[in-house]
What does this fold into?
Amino acid sequence: MKKFSIIFLALVALLSGCQDDIDLELKDDQSGIMVVEAFLRNISTREAIKLTRTTSYYDSEPEELVTGALVTITEDNGSPFQLKESTNPDSLGYYIKPANFSMKIGSAYTLTISIDDEIYTAVSELKPIPNIDSMEVFYNDIQFLFASEFVPIAPGDTIYDINITYTELPQKGDVYLFKYYVNDTLASFYPRDFVYFDDEFLNGEVTGSVQQFPKIQADYGDKITIEMLSISPELATFYEVLFNQTDLSGNLFASSPPANVPTNISNGARGNFQVSQPTYKSTIFKPLFQE
It folds into this structure.
């Protein structure tokens, strides 16, 4: 105890004597970098690409929206198709893909952004995707392993699994992203909500859980829709790093060391460009037993 006391008192004295101010020299050379958010599905709905620039660490203002850019998409070696810039004050920085712009499975698409004598490019291939044969909603069994009369599961917190069945395509190297909707409204917004996996160990008919949702997000009688999207392995890595840098930030046991999120945009820009073929399946959310 004496040894511990001496060490403790010495440590207190040392810490109490540290009165000098410490100036942290934070680098401020990461502002003004182009950031591209460009996930376009092959559907007959207007979608948009968002352009912003990073701001200074010391700047508390919102992100800088990029206006006045020339944004085009070109299929293989075809003619470029220009996206229309939004003039709505609430959606500045968005460049809109019209509903009648369709893409072809197997074709590569080049995104080109021109502004202030700078050109940024990215390429994405539209990969095929299997149809969803069936879809069911079940209780998530794992949650009941930790429940008891002392730690019950509240009705609104009950977790449900969305199970689907589909036939895997013969070629390997496909990656699938899964999102879900409640009454046609997207319910999986953030990186923590995304579920994605590759087909390395998949073959033939595949059945499994691809999304989860708590009862509080849907009422019995609501329509639950699963969206299955074809994406590149690079985008899956992008989402994984983004999740680690946002949702897991500060978690010493789960998060990765801080690092730049990967990008497929040229000329030092950040973000990702992806064209995707979706497929959908819906079901009505019903109780699994008579309540």
